[in-house]
Design goal:
By secondary structure, the protein is α/β, with parallel strands linked by helices. It has 13 helices and 13 strands. 39% of the residues lie in helices and 20% in strands. The strands form 3 sheets. The chain has a 7-stranded mixed sheet with strand order 2-3-5-1-6-7-8, with helices on both faces. Strands 4-10-9 form a 3-stranded mixed sheet. A 3-stranded antiparallel sheet has the order 12-11-13.
């Protein structure tokens, strides 16, 4: 799976601090995440999953391998990016390449941290980013309308496509994001080649001050209210504290630090898990003495597709899948016990894999 999420935001909102927290959290062997730098601003991050830890405890394998997602630190945006201001072109090109957006919004006051836009205004910050992305999408939609205008007069296929594009144009001109338009599955083909920016799912990080890290504040409350119609998740966190936690190599030091701040886990865990769900990803497991491993698939994948993430030959030669529900495995304690209790099922090519399934595939070489 090559799906990835990009961290975006205006200058001085805590975007780079968040990315550093993600990357630093992987440096210590005892940390929750591994991190592999692909480019200076791209990282592979382990997805925290308590189910994997439980399977490790029961099976006692030689090694345990979590699943991962790719996080990209995208160049900061400024007003006018859609027209090439600042690093506008780089910013927009990088967003085009990700599958989901983590938008960091400044929800704290600090006179020592510069802010070009004046007083703290989470909604204003969000609207700057939205507007720049909408303008770029509008440009893409208008260009395609011009390209197919003549063909639409002669071919019903292009006529239908043109009608979808005109709806998109009107929607964007109203200052609305494409993900709010709710295009039907068959209508999405009209814009699929445009790689629209505002159609991507978004998760918001409200970067708050230390006293507000558990409760939020007036700024994060305003942000939550503003994104209600988007059905978007808002993660409240203090990026600076998360970065400090991620730099600690000693698990005891980390536990003491979190206890001091009344934290049961890093907020980073919630962010990574929420991002995973934002990408419409699910996890299945393989569990044996040699290895307990989490595998990433798209929601709704059938068994042969799920097998392909282990090896493409598994999909080509797929015969059957042995499946145990996670809850059954945990309650009974082993694969053998599940087999004896009749909790191991044999599923065929049409089986839709459920999040948490423990699987073993039969296939022809």
């Amino acid at each position: 799976m090559s799906l990835k999420a990009g961290i975006v935001g205006l200058p001085n909102v805590g975007k780079s601090t968040l990315f550093n927290a993600v990357s630093n959290s992987a440096k210590a062997q005892a940390s929750n995440y591994r991190f592999c730098t692909i480019e200076p601003n791209v990282g592979l991050v382990d997805v925290p999953d308590a189910r994997l830890n439980k399977l490790e405890e029961l099976v006692q394998p030689n090694r345990t391998v979590p699943t991962q997602i790719e996080i990209v630190d995208i160049a900061g945006l400024v007003r006018g990016a859609s027209k090439g201001e600042g690093l506008g072109n780089k910013f927009l090109a990088n967003i085009r390449e990700v599958d989901a957006i983590i938008q960091v919004i400044r929800c704290f006051e600090d006179e020592n941290i510069l802010r070009d836009e004046g007083a703290i205004n989470p909604i204003g910050d969000k609207e700057i980013i939205d507007t720049e992305l909408q303008l770029k999408d509008l440009e893409s939609v208008e260009k395609k309308i011009s390209r197919i205008e003549k063909m639409a007069r002669q071919d019903p296929k292009y006529k239908a496509e043109q009608e979808v594009l005109l709806r998109c144009k009107a929607h964007l001109e109203q200052g609305k994001n494409m993900r709010e338009l709710g295009l039907a599955k068959d209508e999405l083909s009209a814009v699929a080649d445009l790689f629209l920016l505002t159609i991507k799912p978004v998760l918001y990080v409200a970067n708050v001050d230390e006293p507000s890290m558990h409760t939020g504040n007036k700024f994060s409350d305003t942000l939550k209210a503003a994104v209600t119609n988007e059905n978007a998740t808002v993660i409240i966190m203090n990026n600076s504290i998360e970065a400090q936690i991620s730099e600690m190599e000693d698990p005891q030091d980390k536990a003491m630090f979190m206890e001091e701040y009344k934290m049961t886990e890093p907020a980073l865990n919630r962010l990574i898990q929420s991002t995973y769900k934002l990408l419409n990803l699910s996890t299945y497991f393989t569990a044996g003495v040699q290895e307990v491993r989490a595998w990433t698939i798209q929601d709704g994948w059938k068994a042969p597709q799920a097998a392909s993430v282990i090896h493409t030959d598994f999909e080509k030669g797929f015969i059957k899948a042995e499946v145990i529900a996670y809850e059954d495995f945990v309650s009974l304690g082993s694969e053998a016990a599940c087999r004896d209790a009749g909790k191991l099922r044999i599923e065929g090519k049409e089986y839709i894999v459920k999040d948490g399934d423990i699987m073993h595939f039969r296939f022809n070489v």
